[in-house]
Amino acid sequence: MRKLFFSQLLFILPLLLLLGCKSKGGIFTPTASGRPYEVLVVVDHDLWERPAGRALYNALDTDVPGLPQAESSFYIMYSSPKDYDSTLKLLRNILIVDIQPDRYTQAKFSYSNNVYAYPQVIVNIQAPSEKEFEEFVNENKQVIVDFLTRVEMNRQIAILEQKHSQLVNETVRSIFDCEVWVPGELNATKTGEDFFWVGTNKATGDQNLIIYSYPYKDKDTFTAEYFINKRDSVMKVNVPGARPGMYMSTETIGLTTRDIEVQNKYAMETRGLWKVKGDFMGGPFVAHTRVDEKNQRIITAEVFVYAPDKLKRNLTRQIEASLYTLRLPLDREQKISKTENDSIKTE
User: Taking Cα atoms as reference points, which of 159, 194, 187, 200 lies closest to residue 300?
Assistant: First the structure.
């Protein structure tokens, strides 16, 4: 088994606006259309309904982890190749199914950026047969989802680079000697001992970011049990509810952790649900736990959303991008590193 390694490189170039077009390499390209996390699949109609097509649909339709209600990873559309016209070619995320027994000897994955529009990614999954296509997608379904998710995450990071809250960045620098980019809409702040909280303070659709630190002493720090205990103790002190005895806590059911890289260094990602003890409030959260090597401490940055009457996928993913912009003291002299894309296996 060989692995085809790739990384999604998002170059932050000066944007030249002219007649609604973006400039890249001296060639004016139309602005991409479509919604975030919307994917157009270009595939023959009959193939789309057979097992190979259903495998791809099921992969893209995977539920986002850590949300209180089931929400698919993407909005999925499809078009037959003959209907894949100049309008559809302007969509931001396109996935082309290409099965040709006379041309390919193995299943493989490739992608191109900004071919017809900007920002845009066009993914090609090629295979010599429907059976091999189906096997390839089933084997790599999570990697395909992660790739397209991180393409969108990188676009949000690019937006944050151009427009973020300087006040929050300066406050985080003064407390933790770190930097982070958050949308300017997050402007309600609270500080505590080794603790910072900023949010939109909305009645619904509320987005928040919390950062807290503590000494790095325990080899079991990067475990779900340790994370829950530490998080609950921090939130009990700093995030109280409406009445005495109420405070934010962690729902242990459904909580997941995994190892990732942020700024090219190890981090533990935790996804799950928060709740207010003694109340009915709750919602999703995503946390990154990292080692501040300079100061021998742990920094946990967390985003959470409160939106009881709304879908939460895009709200959560939009603010989740801020976690990848957090620069610890040893990172601050470096350019923000975009989210990395996992490898995809190929025969």
Answer: 194
Amino acid making up residue 40: L
Task: Note down the domain range covering 40.
Answer: 2-161
- Between CA 153 and CA 82 the distance in angstroms is 31
Helix (H) or strand (E) holding 22: strand 21-24
The four Cα atoms 51, 57, 62, 63 give a dihedral, to 10 degrees, of: -130
Whether the predicted model's global pTM rises above the 0.70 cut: yes
3-class state of residue 23 by DSSP: strand
Helix (H, G, I), strand (E, B) or coil at 230: helix
168/303 same-domain check: yes
Condensed to tens digits (0 to 9), the pLDDT of residues 193-240 reads 999 999 999 988 999 999 999 999 888 899 999 999 999 999 999 999
Interval 135-181: pLDDT, tens: 999 999 999 999 999 999 999 999 999 999 999 999 999 999 999 99
- Classify residue 324 by its DSSP letter: G
Token digits of residue 245:
């005895």
95/226 same-domain check: no
- Which residues are CB-neighbours of 27 under 8 A, at least 6 positions away? none
88 and 231 fall within a common domain: no
Cβ density class 217-228: b for 16+ within 10 Å, e for less:
eeeebbeeebbb
219 and 145 in one domain? Answer: no
**168-193 in b/e burial notation, b at 16+ Cβ within 10 A?**
bbebbeebbbbbbbbbeebeeeeeee
Domains held by the chain: number: 2
Amino acid at 213: S
Same domain, 103 and 237: no
Q: Per DSSP, which regions of 145-246 are E strands? A: 188-192, 195-199, 206-215
Task: Say if CB 99 and CB 126 are below 8 A apart.
Answer: yes
Distance CA(252)–CA(213), nearest Å, equals 22
pLDDT tens across 61-119, in order?
999 999 999 999 999 999 999 999 999 999 999 999 999 999 999 999 999 999 999 99
3-state DSSP call for residue 111? Answer: strand
Structure token digits, residue 225? 């049990």
- Same-domain check for residues 284 and 192: yes
